[in-house]
Design goal:
Radius of gyration: 19 Å
Largest sheet: 2 strands, antiparallel
Number of helices: 2
Helix content: 10-25%
Strand content: 15-25%
Strand order of the largest sheet: 1-2
Number of strands: 2
Structural class: alpha+beta
């Protein structure tokens, strides 16, 4: 298990193995989410980076406004 230590200035350094695995860059922004006793860091992506993410999604069979009560 890879670990990190919280500094006296309440800062964390993300270990190199994790940075490389997730292709994180200096200055990148994260959403910080607290769930119970867990802290999640979710990289914020630009809309440009998200373009084409659902290119192969098949929308057939999804509910439409006509299906709502």
């Amino acid at each position: 298990m890879i670990s990190a230590t919280l500094s006296t200035k309440y800062q964390l350094a993300i270990p190199k193995a994790i940075r490389e695995e997730l292709s994180l860059q200096a200055g990148q922004k994260f959403a910080v989410i607290a769930k119970g006793g867990v802290i999640e860091l979710v990289p914020l992506r630009t809309l440009k980076a998200a373009r084409g993410m659902f290119k192969e999604a098949d929308p057939t069979g999804y509910r439409d406004r006509k299906d709502r009560v």
